[in-house]
């Protein structure tokens, strides 16, 4: 025989039904408050107003429940939105001078958008750029003028593209290396990398629970059985990391060992990288929401022997880990997968390996560091987060290798630059 | 348009891998006609059929297969009072098959799952792919953006630390489904016509600390590494919930794998799922689960297993304790479930004493 519900239980149920009439929950004893909270949740009645009522009681247990269940007040609705072309900047770091074939190949996809081309300050030759694009070119003199010649060291080599991020006025940035061309998908169609990146950024990410059918917001897919409903609205996607056909982004030892290996597998998926999982986020083909995480993409880790081939850099990997840690802390999402670009063969892995193997060794320190770094609750913007990470880098890694102490310094410089230049950008000099 | 491969297209591999080390566990209440289509791939292997429902019904197994079959009477006879932990009138009863198997690996598949075709039209040998997944390491500590680095034509990407490239042993290989996707009842009701036609050519390791919904339709695992954690719970007849058996097992398995440093892979292989179950029936079964999972997920996400839990059984008993402590207040069902979890481990240890042989069992 079922025991009838207690009077207390009936009262709490009644309270759930009448939540709209309740303005103050603080007189309630803790255990009743928690019970009410859980029943409100279960009844699907936890609105923003009701949540604020519970938070206003100031009770620790309520706070820890909210943390544990990862309940967040959604300030802006996370809905797929229609993006206008003029909200996008395409930033290309020119490490080679002849951009003719690169831009001509990308013309069908890039010509609608505004391009920011940043010339590597170390590059001596003049840039060759074909006609017909809406673009701004920034060279060493522009960089010196905007940030001062002492700070401009931040932007040499592959890191020149970060200057483009800094001076852009747009919400979304898409950036590809200048040795990448549009790829073709399994059906032979040209992949519109820009459109795919924008789709990734404007649809929610789902970092708190893994969906086995990958991106639930793509056409023909959805959340699978067993995916909690409270997690199905997802969070804002701040970064979209694409992949590469042909020359994949392997490190020098791997490519040197497998000289002829080329990536021909087109994996038709976009995945949210789960919260707290770190990944090497390559800078070769990325897009991000500049307004939300711009400051977190940091041109900080410069290898002693950094060179003009990707095998000789780690700046993007460092930057990517920083962004992921920041996104995890701020409750934002990072996606990986489509779109693919076609990365042309360039350089020789073995010579790169001979010249620069420091980067590979450094990762052994870098990864455990980022896995363990914890940001304080008070860091609520990307800038705050970067400052905290820089502090931690200095404390924990500074003495291991001078490259880390320099990285910490560069991160702080970057945040300062972002605050002064990034918020009000200037056009390039003639 | 996804289509199943026809029997004539299915071409068996020259040497069936692990044929004496792997059992195929199939729960059924209807018939086993689907086995005809799988014959070229499954025939070399030993089958364990778990017959659910009316034990007096005779389930015909197609000729040529080597199998043992257990119905409810057998389960009651073999486990005695401990049989209470095995569900009745629900495919969750399949975990009995895991318990009586004497092999190292298990592959389990539903009787409405057929051979799928890859984009080139070739029949997919799901079992072969699962074996590849299980025999190569997993990489749960750092996400590789090019997915499984051990697959042909792939590798670790730049920035992946070398000290993590050895990987860890793979305990579970979770396959996917073309055609009818594994949606819950509300999604099925809203999208009755949606079919999964996207073939995603990837296998990936689910990172440590991340939970996922494990579907039992197309699943393989290393019984020696994780078997005792593959309990599919109390579902079906007399229980307030259904269609959460594999989910429950998946959450327990992932927490334990994360604790013990084992890997879980998901992705390939695909099978062709032909039968869409009735969404209204499903809704009635899942209804409580949809609310309960909001509490269950945070429970598993926050579960910490003490360092002295060094075996799967110890981890599982500890989890059962935590379920009793923390989830009983959600519903008395969890109290029963926690007890059943303990019963399961007791039964497992009884049937699988340390040092048991690998020969096939026979249903007496």
Automatic annotation (TrEMBL), chain A:
One of its GO terms (biological process) is cell wall organization. Keywords: Cell wall biogenesis/degradation, Golgi apparatus. It is found in: Golgi apparatus. It comes from the Eukaryota. The keyword Cell wall biogenesis/degradation applies. GO terms for cellular component: Golgi apparatus. The keyword Cell wall biogenesis/degradation applies. InterPro entries: RGP_fam. Belongs to the RGP family. This is Probable UDP-arabinopyranose mutase 5 isoform X2. It comes from Theobroma cacao (Cacao).
UniProtKB/TrEMBL annotation, chain B:
Keywords: Cell wall biogenesis/degradation, Glycoprotein, Golgi apparatus, Isomerase. Glycans are attached at residue 158. One of its GO terms (molecular function) is UDP-arabinopyranose mutase activity. Pfam families: RGP (PF03214). InterPro entries: Nucleotide-diphossugar_trans (IPR029044), RGP (IPR004901), RGP_fam (IPR037595). One of its GO terms (cellular component) is Golgi apparatus. It is found in: Golgi apparatus. The record marks 158, 165 as: Required for activity. It comes from the Eukaryota. It is an enzyme of class 5 (isomerase). Probable UDP-L-arabinose mutase involved in the biosynthesis of cell wall non-cellulosic polysaccharides. This is UDP-arabinopyranose mutase. It comes from Theobroma cacao.
């Amino acid at each position: 025989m079922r025991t009838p519900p207690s009077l207390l239980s009936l009262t709490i149920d009644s309270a759930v039904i009448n939540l709209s009439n309740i303005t103050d929950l603080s007189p309630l004893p803790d255990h009743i408050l928690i019970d009410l909270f859980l029943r409100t949740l279960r009844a699907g009645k936890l609105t923003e107003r009701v949540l604020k009522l519970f938070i206003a009681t100031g009770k620790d247990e309520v706070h820890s429940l909210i943390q544990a269940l990862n309940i967040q007040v959604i300030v802006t609705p996370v809905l797929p939105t229609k993006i206008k072309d003029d909200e996008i900047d395409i930033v290309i770091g020119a490490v080679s001078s002849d951009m003719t074939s690169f831009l001509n190949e990308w013309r069908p996809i890039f010509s609608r958008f505004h391009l920011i081309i940043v010339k590597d300050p170390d590059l001596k030759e003049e840039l060759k750029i074909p006609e017909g694009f809406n673009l701004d070119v920034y060279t060493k003199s522009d960089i010196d003028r905007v940030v001062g010649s002492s700070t401009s060291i931040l932007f040499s080599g592959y890191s020149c593209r970060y200057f483009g991020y800094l001076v852009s006025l747009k919400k979304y940035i898409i950036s590809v290396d200048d040795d990448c061309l549009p790829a073709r998908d399994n059906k032979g169609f040209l992949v519109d990398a820009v459109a795919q990146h924008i789709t990734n950024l404007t649809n929610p990410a789902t970092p708190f629970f893994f969906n086995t059918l990958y991106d639930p917001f793509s056409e023909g897919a959805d959340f699978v059985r067993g995916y909690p409903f409270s997690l199905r609205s997802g969070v804002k996607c701040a970064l979209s990391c694409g992949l590469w056909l042909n020359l994949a982004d392997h490190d020098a030892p791997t490519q040197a060992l497998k000289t002829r290996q080329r990536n021909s597998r087109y994996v038709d998926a976009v995945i949210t990288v789960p919260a707290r999982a770190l990944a090497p986020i390559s800078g070769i083909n990325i897009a991000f929401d500049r307004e939300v995480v711009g400051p977190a993409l940091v041109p900080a880790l410069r290898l002693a022997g950094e060179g003009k081939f990707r095998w000789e850099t780690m700046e993007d990997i460092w930057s990517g880990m920083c962004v992921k840690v920041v996104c995890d802390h701020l409750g934002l999402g990072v996606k990986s997968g489509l779109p693919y670009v076609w990365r042309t063969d360039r350089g020789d892995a073995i010579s790169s390996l001979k010249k620069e193997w420091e980067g590979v060794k450094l990762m052994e320190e870098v990864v455990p560091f980022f896995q363990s770094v914890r940001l304080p609750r008070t860091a609520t913007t990307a800038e705050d987060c970067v400052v905290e990470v820089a502090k931690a880098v200095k404390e924990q890694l500074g003495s291991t290798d001078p490259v880390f102490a320099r990285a910490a310094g560069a991160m702080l410089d970057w945040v300062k630059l972002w605050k002064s230049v990034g918020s009000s950008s200037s056009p390039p000099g003639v | 348009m996804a289509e199943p491969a026809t029997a004539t297209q299915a071409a068996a591999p020259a040497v069936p891998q692990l044929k004496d080390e792997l059992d195929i566990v199939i729960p059924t209440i209807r018939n086993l006609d689907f086995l005809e289509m799988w014959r070229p791939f499954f025939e070399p292997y030993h089958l364990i059929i778990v017959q659910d429902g009316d034990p007096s019904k005779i389930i015909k197994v197609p000729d040529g297969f080597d199998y043992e079959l257990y119905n409810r009477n057998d389960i009651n006879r073999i486990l005695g009072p401990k049989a209470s932990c095995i569900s009745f009138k629900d495919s969750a009863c399949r975990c009995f098959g895991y318990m009586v198997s004497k092999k190292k690996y298990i592959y389990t598949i539903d009787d409405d799952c057929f051979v799928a075709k890859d984009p080139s039209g070739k029949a997919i040998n799901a079992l072969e792919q699962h074996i590849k997944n299980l025999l190569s390491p997993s990489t749960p500590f750092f996400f590789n953006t090019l997915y499984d680095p051990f697959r042909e034509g792939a590798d670790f990407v730049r920035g992946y630390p070398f000290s993590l490239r050895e990987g860890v042993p793979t305990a579970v290989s979770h396959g996917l489904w073309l055609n009818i996707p594994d949606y819950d009842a509300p999604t099925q009701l809203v999208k009755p016509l949606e079919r999964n036609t996207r073939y995603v050519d990837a296998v990936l390791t689910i990172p440590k600390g991340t939970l996922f919904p494990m579907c039992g339709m197309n699943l393989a695992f290393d019984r020696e590494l994780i078997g005792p954690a593959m309990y599919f719970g109390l579902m079906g007849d007399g229980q307030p919930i259904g269609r959460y058996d594999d989910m429950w097992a998946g959450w327990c398995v992932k927490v334990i794998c994360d604790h013990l440093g084992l890997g879980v892979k998901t992705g390939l292989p695909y099978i062709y799922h032909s039968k869409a179950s009735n969404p209204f029936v499903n809704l009635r079964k899942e209804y409580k689960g949809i609310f309960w999972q909001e509490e269950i997920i945070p429970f598993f996400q926050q579960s910490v297993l003490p360092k002295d839990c060094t075996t799967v059984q110890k981890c599982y008993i500890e989890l059962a304790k935590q379920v009793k402590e923390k989830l009983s207040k959600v519903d008395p069902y969890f109290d029963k479930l926690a007890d059943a979890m303990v019963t399961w481990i007791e039964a497992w240890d009884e049937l699988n004493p340390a040092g048991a042989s690998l020969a096939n069992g026979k249903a007496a």
